[in-house]
Amino acid sequence: MTALTLSSSSAAGLRADAVVVGVAKGPKGPVPAPGAEAVDEAYGGKLGAVLEALGASGGEGEVTKLPAPDGLKAPLVVAVGLGAVPEKGAGYDTETLRRAAGAAARALAGVKKAAFALPLEVADDTAAVAEGALLGAYAFNTYRGGADAGAKDDRGDKGAKSAKGAKARANGGGAKAPLAEIALAGGKRDKANRTAVERATVLAEEVNRARDLVNIPSNDLDPTGFAAAAQQAGKEHGFKVAVTDEKALAKGGYGGLLGVGQGSQTPPRLVRLEHRHPKAKQTIALVGKGITYDSGGISLKPAGHNETMKCDMSGAAAVLAAVSAAARLELPVNVTGWLALAENMPSGSATRPGDVLRMYSGKTVEVLNTDAEGRLVLADALTRASEEKPDYMVDVATLTGAMVLALGNRTFGIMANDDAFRTRIHMLAEAAGEQSWPMPMPPELKKGMESPIADIANMGERMGGGLVAGLFLEEFVGDGITWAHLDIAGPAFNTSGPFGYTPKGGTGSAVRTLVALAEEAAHGDLV
Prior knowledge:
This protein has 527 residues and is of the alpha/beta class. The protein contains 15 helices and 20 strands.
């Protein structure tokens, strides 16, 4: 991954291939932001005028490149827009800084080193710029230009090499390597800022781990390969990993996981992750949907809806990354992660619409639609996680197209059995830079899931389908456990162009929210 350092030197004194400055949208044109003073001075105090002449306005995310004048050691200046000038006494919003740093880092793909001279008034600013720059510099070039990826490693675990991350950067195929090195110029090298950079680095690396997993094609990342990736991460960062294979799943009665996975040649897996801390006072269980490919099963998806279904394991990727981050940050909280891994394929052995599955909880489910499979694997994992009686439990899933219709492609929905907990997660997500929205759980929608032959059906009313899915999952949450459901179907995979620090493809959605939740629990600040 891109290297990042904190430097107390000014942008003018750093040797780099480019220097990045912020520019705001003033009433009379672009205005250099704090941190850009040395660069503005090198332009004779006319940086704003030069940018205006080039058509720049200072609007958020706008990137303008221009040759550096004498007085700077870098040959290139990159001005990135920050939007409106803040009111007097106020600083720039952290998400604005995060996105600006990400946009600049993306624009510098192929460059070896860049000095970022963005506003760094407080440690939160340092954290935002570091995080945004590292996330923006991400690239998944593993399969370009003959890079040796997707092969078996020495143990023969399919996909394990790819799952370690996109380390094989291509020289061919037109792909540029990401920005190699970032120096944050003008920052204070005190404990608060060093800690901010260290946390931002871990967070970005783990978000990028999730992105890599989502981007790996399904022929290189099936349930067994994903389980191997989890084992590798646990070995690297010191958290426990236990894998339940198909024989143990059958013996244990995990009808949801087995029912979804029985149409595939690759059997399902349930993976348990555990980060423990001797000073922990609370336990959080994180449960992730891990459908490594979703064809819809017998209820086959129509043409045009299959091409991105490798991303249906984004929830499990987020859980793995969040547990890894908690371990690396040594958070004083116990975190368990549950990866419900299966491949949903049509075949002669696949579950049929109308079949009845007996779940791990003992409840029976009539499967009316095999493309509503995520809730089936999550149901087994939620029940199993509930047995350990965590203080809080959160599941994460690319669960419903209905949630995308409701909230769009950049916002995930939050449902919960506790309003205060739902509100708290929403606040943490927004502070972390992840767009989210609280959603209701109307009890009248439960009636649509009544089955004439089973305890419950896996489908209900079409209208409000995202809420129906949340109500289904609630049926498998243990008594007395505070629980929330994050439906990340919209933001998990970006099919449009990149923006800010968000790339095309896998985004790592919900990782930062889950880490923030673990940090709150570690500090005893959760509801």
